[in-house]
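Render this sequence as a predicted structure.
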Amino acid sequence: MENMENNLSHSNYGAIKPNLTATQNSGSPQAPAPIPAPLNPYQIQLKEHFGWYGLWALAVGLLAAFCFYKNPNAVTYPLFIGAIYLAAYRLLPSLEILIKKDSWFLTAAAMVLAFNSSFTASPTLHMFNHTAQILLGAVFLIHQCYDDSRWNIGKYGNAILRFWLGIVCCLHLPFAHGISFMKHLKSEKYKNLFLILTGFCAAVPAVFFLGTLLADADAVFHSILYMLVLDILKPASILEIILLVSGFSLLFYCSLGSVCSMGIPKEESEKNQKNPVAAISFTFFIGLLYLFFCVIQIIYLFGRKGRLPWNMTYAQYARQGFFQLLAVSLLNLVLVLSCLKYFKNHRLLSAMLVVISICTYIMIASAGYRMILYVGAYWLTFLRLFVLWFLGLLSILMAGVLILIFRPQFPLFYWCLVSVTVAYCGFAWSRPDYQIAKYNIAREDGWITQNNIDYLIRHLSADAAPAIQAANLDPKILDSQTIPHSWSVTDSVAKKAFIISSLRGIPWQNQPSWQPGIRSYNASLATAWKLANEYAPSN
């Protein structure tokens, strides 16, 4: 079957037809009554088989509760992401939406980031990974439903926004479809399902009552049941589990509803591009300004020649203007893309855009050099490392723009998608917190000193534990009052254990007593726990 938009006419959906025949008894005209928009074949399929798709949505909700209840970033994270994509590969063909062969890249990227979440303890990386999963999931579903081969970045951004707005607009679907489904439960088709639900409802109080009796009969069974169930039976825990199950079930079903609604319009025919004379004139003067600025960078910043303003050193000169250069580089990216989209192709315009792109590379190099000098003077932080990574990524994206200038049919969006995905996966798996701690400690000749201890404890996660373990510790860095009184020691070995167990995001709150469980296992936390226990004194 071809893509959805080839079979449907989007212009008919959502149309409101006035009722011209209805009038009130008093003779005054009645307000036109809106007629519900007709359902397309995919929406009909979703509604008529609510039992099947609703069961999948409930299963996803239950799995989410198992994976994420008080356990957001552990080994269960890739289990959930894998189950979501498995459900997509199973359910989309049942809606007559074929999975495209090149979708493996999006699936693989999602799994790589899912495993990264279970191997890192960095809250910042966790937040980035969650955001990446949301975007990759939206792109995956949109890619299956539409012919997006010629979509640009703006079109895809609009499509992602429409997809998520479509989920909001579909919030009523599970309830509407569920009510319609309940009306047919007594039919022969759903007789067995109705009996299963009846048996489940009857079993819940029976299991609770019998479990209580058995717990009184056996001490071992009582202790196991106590550990497994007691926390779940708390009102706050029950509420949290209910919210997890219902929230993820609702989100999953509404995502199917947004896919089936076909709410993203077809690609419009290319708008008439404007005469490029104005754009040539504009980019010519911008290019002259950039060329003059780049010459200054080459002579004064890179070459360190020429006379600086009075009372300014080269260090002061090199460390200023980073964020301004970053902003101009991003604006140049938008400028080049806008000129290519809204103006007719012309040799002079292409030449000006090439000049601007090359100048952008010099600005990126200038910004990166300034940031490296800044790091050399003021240490390395996560933000500074991320900015250096982003400058490298921006260089790759600008290469795609340069290709687009000479080849208008170049798939720039896919270039950006693959570049950003691969680059971010590499950044996430490089363990930024570990690299930061290793670099800053090396600056102190391998010693943990007061210059870096505060940043290690307050800003870095358990990912930095191996770097701390390999470093030397200044004996004067912590006094005996800093160590927990239960340890009753002041030697540097115990102090190193205290530093490791104080890293940001570690759940045992400065005490190396936490142990990784089967469901809550996180590789980074487990490593930090092991190292802290190696250095902790025996009580």
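Summary. Strands lie at 447-448, 472-473. DSSP finds 21 helices and two strands in the chain.
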